[in-house]
Amino acid sequence: MAEITREEIAGALAGVTVTHDGQTQQMAPTVAQPPALAAWQVWPDWQSAVWVSGCVVERTWQVYVILPAADAQTWTSATDAVLNAVRTALLNVGHVSRAEPIQLVASEQSLTMPAVAFTLLTN
What is the predicted pLDDT for the residue at 1? Predict the structure, then answer.
């Protein structure tokens, strides 16, 4: 079995939409973290590799989804909107074992943005 690439993970997220505050929002997948963070961006970040056997490697990825940051209520409702949609898309390339709320640094001024980190296991 061929290994899943970051391009395939980003591709699985292309076209994913969520409804938030009555509006349809489309995920903006990239293969790496964009230089400037904005709501609805999503990308994979490789975390580890475990050799299960001589020919089988299990890889762990974090897939980050940036949420709108207006206030706590906004990012809470945005989290609810992305959980199932992103998980369902990622199941096309691997196993989603976890999703958790996080804050990512958005600029050199150390501003943070709310996000959801999905743990994805692939071969």
Answer: 52
Give a yes or no: residue 1 inside a domain: no
Judge contact between 51 and 57, C-beta under 8 A: yes
Other CB atoms within 10 Å distance of the CB of residue 64: 19
DSSP 43-82: EEEEEEEEESSSS-EEEEEEEEEE---S-HHHHHHHHHHH
CA–CA dist 56, 63 (Å, integer)? 22
103 belongs to a structural domain? yes
pTM of the model: 0.93
User: What does the pLDDT read at residue 109?
Assistant: 63
Which CATH number fits the domain that encloses residue 65? 3.30.2000.10
Nearest to 102 by CA among 86, 113, 88: 113
Side-chain-facing half-sphere of 91: CA atoms under 13 Å: 6
Domain that holds residue 89: 6-15+23-122
